[in-house]
Structure formats: structure tokens, C-alpha cells
Design brief:
Blueprint: H1 7-13, H2 19-25, H3 45-75, H4 94-99, H5 103-107, E1 123-125, E2 131-133, H6 144-171, H7 179-206
Antiparallel strand pairs: 1-2
Helix pairs in contact: 6-7
Length: about 220
């Protein structure tokens, strides 16, 4: 491992080391820098501040672009979430109503209650539906029980959206929507159910259920 050798030896032996090599050696990963990295970062203090400013500018530009895009969709009366044609009298298309868990309230507002607010922990969901745990106050992954609670919470949330979505998709039969729009809405409801299944499978796999082994051994 590069971390086992003095800095001078690392620089001479691997002057063009990869970013991963520099991380292992504790060297700032900013191109051309040979300073020690921060304990809580992969960059030295100077480049850590520089990266923070760059990310702040990027987030600001992204928010500005999002506001322009939203204003354009509002002006053209398109779905505020995806830009498709809206449902009559509402701000979203049929597919997005299901994705945000509001479909059943459009068709039959007296049935069912809204789900409580989503889990507000520092957890994000990738495009493949898998949860990723970031932004921890200190290094290391949360305890298994905490991860299970988050995954099961997301599973219940997705399951609720799927159940409401299927009811909503059924109620769209006979409406002015095209067949393609109805099929797309039903597909989104089924996708929510599939996402709930993935979260549950993550919990089962974490506990060694599929391998029938004790995960603590």
C-alpha cells in the first residue's frame, strides 16, 4: 500500500499516480498538488475551500436554471415535474401524480390519508432505486438497525404510492387521456411497487436471508 511508504518515495515511484492512489497515500487529490489531505477530506485545506466555492457556484447556477425551467412550464401549463402535458385542472401529468403519491386524491379525495412526511435523514436514492447514505457527521456507515429503518420506511412510502397509483390508473379508464398516457401512468405505479420490493430485498440481503447464513458470523 502506498500509505506504508514515505511521501518522497511515493512521489518518485508514482509521479503520475491515480486519484485513488493519492487518496490511499493521504495526498491531496487536486491535480498538481502534493500537500497532505485533510482528515475529513481528500483534499488539502486550500483546495478543499476552492472546491467548496466551485460547488457553491454550481448549485447556485443549477437553482437558477431550475427556476427558469419551472417558470417556463408554468407559463406553458405543462407538468411542473417532467414538462409533459398536465392533467386538466392540475399541475402534474398522470405519471407524476403517481410518482409523488397524489394520484388517489385526484380521483377520490375522501379515500385514504396522505402519507406522513418522507424520512428526512441524509439519505438519497440513486436512479436504480437503491438508497445511498451520505453526509454523515463522522466517517463510517450507520448501524444496521438504522439502515433497516430507513429502507423499510422508503419501502412503505413506495408501496403506498404504488397502491394509490394503481387505483388512480384504474380511474383513468374512460377519460380523455390517450391509451399511451394511461399505460405510462400504470407503468409508473408498477415501478413504485418494484422499488418497494427492492428496498425490502436490501433489508433481507443485509441480514443474510437469501444465503440462509448469520450475517454476524
Amino acid at each position: 500500500m502506498l500509505a506504508d511508504f514515505p511521501r518522497s518515495v511515493v512521489d518518485e515511484a508514482r509521479p503520475l499516480a491515480t486519484r485513488e492512489d493519492r487518496k490511499v497515500a493521504g495526498v491531496c487529490t487536486y491535480d498538481g498538488c502534493g500537500e497532505d489531505a485533510d482528515d475529513e477530506s481528500v483534499e488539502c485545506p486550500k483546495h478543499r475551500r476552492k472546491s467548496a466555492r466551485r460547488k457553491a457556484r454550481w448549485r447556485k447556477a443549477k437553482r437558477k436554471l431550475a427556476r427558469k425551467l419551472l417558470a417556463k412550464r408554468i407559463q406553458k401549463k405543462l407538468c411542473m415535474r417532467c414538462g409533459r402535458k398536465r392533467l386538466s385542472g392540475h399541475d402534474h401529468c398522470a405519471k407524476c401524480f403517481i410518482a409523488i403519491g397524489e394520484g388517489v386524491h385526484v380521483v377520490c379525495p375522501k379515500n385514504g390519508d396522505k402519507k406522513s412526511a418522507r424520512i428526512t435523514a441524509n439519505t438519497s436514492i440513486d436512479a436504480d432505486g437503491r438508497s445511498r447514505y451520505r453526509g454523515q457527521g463522522k466517517r463510517g456507515q450507520p448501524k444496521r438497525g438504522a439502515i433497516d429503518a430507513k429502507d423499510l420506511g422508503y419501502a412503505l412510502d413506495a408501496l403506498g404510492r404504488g397502491v394509490k397509483g394503481l387505483a388512480f390508473a384504474d380511474a383513468l379508464e374512460g377519460t380523455a387521456l390517450t391509451k399511451a398516457q394511461r399505460v405510462e401512468a400504470r407503468g409508473e405505479a408498477l415501478a413504485q411497487l418494484d422499488q418497494a420490493q427492492r428496498f425490502i430485498e436490501d433489508v433481507l440481503d443485509r441480514h443474510g436471508y437469501f444465503g440462509k447464513t448469520d450475517p454476524d458470523e
